[in-house]
Amino acid sequence: MELFDPNDNHTLVPNPVPLPLCEGYGSEDGSPQEYHLPLGWQYGYGLLCAIISIMGAVGNGIVIWICLYYRRMRTITNFFIANLAAADLLLSICNVPPTSYFILTQNWPFGQAACAFVNFIATTPIVASVLTMMCISIDRYIAIVHPMRPRMSKYTAYVIIVAIWLTGGSVSFPALVYSATFANGNTTICSLQWDAPQSEKKVNSEFIYQFAYMFITYFVPVVALTFAYGRVAKELWGTKSIGEISVAQIESIKSKKKLVKVLIWVMTTCAICWAPFHIWFIVTSINRCVQLLKHASHIFTSSYVLAMSNSVYNPIIYVILNQRFRQGFKQVFQWLPWVHFDPSEALDRPQRGTGQHHNITRDAFSSCHDMNTMRNGGSSHALANSHSTLNNHNGTHRTSGASTFQSPTSRNTLTVDESTRNRLLPSFALQDADGCRLGKKGMAKCDSIYSF
User: Fold this and answer.
1) How many CB atoms lie within 10 A of CB 345?
2) Domain limits, CATH 1.20.1070.10, in the chain
3) Rounded to an integer, what distance in angstroms lies between the CA atom of residue 1 and that of residue 27?
4) How far is 253 from 425, CA to CA, in rounded Å?
5) Under 8 Å between Cβ of 9 and 1
6) Of 50, 52, 12, 43, which is closest to residue 273 (Cα–Cα)?
């Protein structure tokens, strides 16, 4: 496939403007040299794009359906996960197919409007994805590291999601302005056409945009997500609880750890997939002669395929690491002969079951109620049974403040002030299996253990 001949712009790279003479990059006289992808590579890349488009559309569509259709899955975190899936779905449907067609035919027959739309769609979902991941990390950070703070409401989540897409559209607006089609013999090329390299100002405008775009969609999210999940991991895995904790609290901690593992995998996969793509555009905006290198076509096309494949990985991560999504996918594909689906595990069964789950739920609400009672000066039965027993083995008690609680079961007097109690108990110990937390006005909203 011809890549960088300015007189025959069969190029995948959205910079097919006339290139200056580049000594050592093209032919011996410095003029651009034609390099071709073999026909087999063209069809190979095209096939990969087709597979990515189909798997991304199906997988993310099912994720959205699971998050929104089943009542028990309609939580704040899952709303953002559905929004993340929507961004990947849009990218898989609206961007990957026309690009794969271009790879195969080296021609753009869809017109100027479609050219601008596809380039716009190529960037908007990327911004929406990274901003959504940042919102998820902030929500988890507050829920686990600062559980006493008020949680995000569903209305707030809806507003944030709308703001995410408006921001994505604003950042991607230059794609609408600079998109253009031009004839090249019997074919038509669609590309982002920045200004000619002879103009120093125009070259700088391309670099400024590419750097700003990478800064917003890559550097900032990676740093923010690393900090947030690092702090969350330290809270969950690095903090040791004092005394006894209930079964409900153990289930809550396990549930939170599983969710954080899933989100860390999502973040890491995204960072790996998009790094080469961003680096390519930064390098070529600084030095356009890099586009004349012999293997530049392979480098760009492979980086594009890797970046687009990120939309496929998230549903796979959910299925592998999360039981509820695994059950949801089994429920969707139960008609396949090799899928073993147990109807008793259906997501649409009654949320309050029997046996162990029922006991955990009952203990969870009892734990929240007892903590509320203790916070308002009640007996130490809540402290002893719901969180920890601060008695030593000799029957003596530890004193650390002014408030005295009498345990009716142990007959020991516990003297613990509010600040000491909050300091001794890890933050996630104030939550039960249903995620009940105490706010300033008593029991706060609960996140179901089945939510993710």
Assistant:
1) 14
2) 39-332
3) 17
4) 13
5) no
6) 52
pLDDT per position as a tens digit, 81-104: 999 999 999 999 998 888 878 767
Q: What is the mean pLDDT of the chain?
A: 71
| pLDDT band at residue 20 using 50, 70 and 90 as cut-offs | low
- CATH code for the part of the protein at 39-332: 1.20.1070.10
Tens digits of per-residue pLDDT, 127-175? 999 999 999 988 888 888 888 888 888 899 999 999 999 999 998 888 8
- Given a contact cutoff of 8 angstroms between Cβ atoms, the answer to whether 256 and 144 are in contact is yes
- One-letter-per-residue 3-state SS of the chain: CCCCCCCCCCCCCCCCCCCCCCCCCCCCCCCCCCCCCCHHHHHHHHHHHHHHHHHHHHHHHHHHHHHHHCHHHCCHHHHHHHHHHHHHHHHHHHCHHHHHHHHHHCCCCCHHHHHHHHHHHHHHHHHHHHHHHHHHHHHHHHHHHCCCCCCCCHHHHHHHHHHHHHHHHHHCHHHHHHEEEEEECCEEEEEECCCCCCCHHHHHHHHHHHHHHHHHHHHHHHHHHHHHHHHHHHHHHHCCCCCCCCHHHHHHHHHHHHHHHHHHHHHHHHHHHHHHHHHHHHHHHHCHHHHHCCCHHHHHHHHHHHHHHHHHHHHHHHHHHCHHHHHHHHHHCCCCCCCCCCHHHCCCCCCCCCCHHHHHHHHHHHHHHHHHHHHCCCCCHHHHHHHCCCECCCCCECEECCCEEECCCCCCEEEECHHHHHHHCCHHHHCCCCCCCEECCEECCCCCCCCC
CA within 13 Å, CB half, 329: 18
Instruction: Name which of 138-152, 266-280, 337-351 the model is least confident about.
Output: 337-351
